[in-house]
Specification:
The complex is a heterodimer of chains A (about 280) and B (about 325). With about 280 residues, chain A is an alpha/beta fold. In chain A, the strands form three sheets. Chain A has a seven-stranded antiparallel β-sheet. In chain A, strands 11-10-9-8-12-13-16 form a seven-stranded mixed β-sheet, sandwiched between helices. Chain A is globular. By secondary structure, chain B is α/β, with parallel strands linked by helices. Chain B is built from nine helices and 16 strands. In chain B, helix 5 links the parallel strand 9 and strand 10. The relative contact order of chain B is 0.20. Classes of the chains: A alpha/beta (about 280), B alpha/beta (about 325).
Chain lengths: ~280, ~325
């Protein structure tokens, strides 16, 4: 079965706003809240392009998956991984921002089949948003982190199963699987388990392993890719990923970031990027 | 804001360039706003659309056949600039005229088609096919020949650096474009850009676009390797503005040709600097990628600007003649 195509996303808006909050939620992750001039709806899996207004040292905005919305306030999670996110952290509360939102194709809306949610690192927000939006007990939620300090435990309800690459302390009352998040899923859903639809978001190795798992089982699988972006709205062709059908490329920002795993050429994916 | 009194012409008006009149002097640069289709549904408080007030959208460069483009990563940001190695990914001329031109025409988007080829005769073929297919297009104002994309090994920068080849490419296209403005986009990666501009004029260009990207590279210190798979790419962004301004000034001073200035322009103030040295229009490039309303904002600022306090044109001459 092929995944149903997601509904065409609503028009994106270019909005001004300010950083309303920026707080650490784990040893490596921060929660950023933006107060924008208008409220904008979004679907889980969509993202925003965020610019620090007037900061010409940053030529491009930075893409961030959306976590939550309350009125005109949007929330996202980020890690400081480079110049852009360092400047974002240093900008502080009150800094003016410009935001293009919502962008990209979201995860497909649910159907009666159970979902297997696989999230790693800053791949958490879209799947946290998905779980929050649909709140379905039949779905299996799995989140992976490097160690016990890496995960934003306060955002992970007990319904989330957790894996850790390295052993480490976890909060009282919580358990963690030793290994990566796809290994956790395999342990929970051994061969012969009922079919699930896989939704994955995280680093390329996670997505690749999720696609392999789904292919082995004959399950549908949607992956949300993380790519370096220029424009975020489809014009620069900078954020391409290899398409399976014709040897060409699709844009992560407009054709994605959520793709049917069978639509991507996994053999070519990541070549040249050192991943 | 008030327009400065030293302006040699009123940049708020239309622009006559060769056989065409453009509705404005704020354009978007090739490769930075797609084919002029994406972004049409974007909205921003205070702006009608990303296309409002634009003199032209210069399309993504189109080649005779479709090209898949270069493998990623294709973009790399540096401080105040960015490297790109897109590799002229495009749909090819046939799909461009069948699928894109009719939409631009129906939406009333003024556009300039950017064309690239590997031989002068191929530029002629492209121009001939486009002219035949889009003969009735009211919003197709011109062609910009991409003579200097530095990423394509078989053509691009090598012949774009040779005045003889520039003249031949322009002449081949001119023959088929009697009713459209013809511009040659020039590489800055040469000693004298004015020589290239003069060659374009000899070939029959109505003006030149300056500048295309500088050749640049960066190294990933984790690996010691270039960040782009093809090692070097095109460098653009705000860091380029002084370089572009100097090159436009060089062309204007040495040839008097109409120049469409491009390179690092983000704001109306940036655009005014190009008008100051004699550019007849400007293109917004990299800034349009980070903000789809960047060019519309510059155009809106220009349209809203008050008259200069002193009469325009005193003590100045401009190739625009306006």
């Amino acid at each position: 079965m092929t995944m149903p195509a997601a509904a065409p996303p609503p028009s994106a808006r270019r909005l001004r706003g300010t950083i309303a909050a920026d707080v650490p939620v784990s040893s490596s992750m921060r929660r950023l809240e933006l107060e924008l001039e208008e409220a904008v709806p979004f679907q889980p899996g969509q993202f925003c392009m965020l610019n620090l207004t007037g900061d010409l040292a940053l030529v491009f905005g930075r893409p961030f998956s959306l976590l939550a919305k309350t009125g005109q306030r949007l929330s996202l999670l980020y890690k400081v991984v480079g110049r852009g996110t360092a400047r974002l952290r240093d900008a502080g509360v009150g800094a003016p921002v410009t935001c293009l939102v919502p962008l990209g194709r979201p995860f497909p809306a649910p159907d009666p089949r159970p979902r297997l949610l696989l999230a790693g690192g800053v791949g958490l927000p879209p799947l946290l948003a998905w779980a929050e939006r649909w709140d379905r007990p039949q779905d299996l939620r799995c989140a992976g982190g490097r160690d016990g300090d890496d995960l934003p435990w306060g955002l992970l309800s007990p319904a989330w199963r957790v894996s850790l690459d390295r052993p480490g302390a976890v909060p009282a009352g919580r358990l963690a699987f030793g290994g990566n998040v796809v290994e956790l899923a395999r342990s929970l859903l051994p061969a012969g388990s009922p079919a699930h639809v896989v939704l994955a978001c995280g680093p390329l190795p996670l997505l690749r392993a999720a696609a392999v798992l789904a292919a082995e089982r004959g399950w549908d699988c949607s992956v949300s890719v993380e790519e370096r972006m220029g424009c975020g709205y489809g014009v620069c062709r900078g954020c391409v990923v290899p398409r399976a059908q014709d040897g060409g490329y699709a844009t992560a920002c407009k054709d994605g970031p959520v793709f049917d795993a069978r639509g991507l050429d996994w053999a070519r994916f990541g070549e040249g990027s050192g991943v | 804001m008030m327009l400065p009194g030293w302006l040699a012409f009123d940049p708020r008006g239309p622009l006559r360039l060769g056989p065409r009149e453009f509705p404005g002097r704020i354009w978007t640069a090739s490769g930075c706003f797609g084919y002029g289709l994406d972004g049409a549904d974007l909205v921003a408080p205070g702006y009608g659309s990303p296309f409002a007030g634009l003199g032209a959208v210069v399309t993504k460069t189109v080649t005779p056949e479709a090209r898949p483009g270069n493998p990623p990563p294709r973009l790399w940001e540096t401080a105040h600039g960015a490297l790109n190695s897109i590799g002229l990914e495009n749909v090819g001329l046939a799909r461009f005229v069948d699928e894109i031109v009719p939409v631009l025409e129906a939406r009333g988007v003024p556009f300039v088609a950017s064309l690239a080829a590997t031989r002068p005769g191929e530029f002629g073929d492209l121009a001939r096919r486009l002219a035949a297919a889009a003969a009735g297009s009211a919003h197709w104002h011109g062609v910009e020949l991409n003579l200097s994309c530095p990423n394509v090994a078989e053509g691009g920068v090598d012949f774009g650096r040779d005045p003889v080849m520039v003249e031949r490419c322009v002449a081949a296209a001119r023959e088929h474009l009697p009713e459209r403005a013809l511009l040659a986009k020039l590489t800055p990666n040469v000693g004298s850009i004015a020589r290239l501009a003069a060659a374009a004029a000899r070939g029959g260009a109505d003006g030149v676009t300056a500048i295309n990207t500088l050749i640049g590279m960066d190294v990933d210190l984790r690996t010691g390797l270039p960040v782009l798979p093809r090692r070097r790419g095109g460098y653009s962004g705000p860091a380029l503005l002084p370089v572009a301004l100097a090159r436009v000034d060089e062309i204007v001073q040495e040839t008097g040709l109409p120049v469409v200035g491009v390179g690092g322009i983000t704001t109306l103030e940036d655009a005014l600097k190009f008008f100051a040295v004699g550019a007849v229009a400007v293109q917004i490039g990299t800034a349009q990628m980070s903000d789809p309303f960047a060019a519309a904002a510059v155009a809106a600022g220009l349209a809203a600007a008050g008259d200069p306090e002193t009469s325009a044109g005193q003590g100045r001459s401009s190739p625009s003649g306006q």
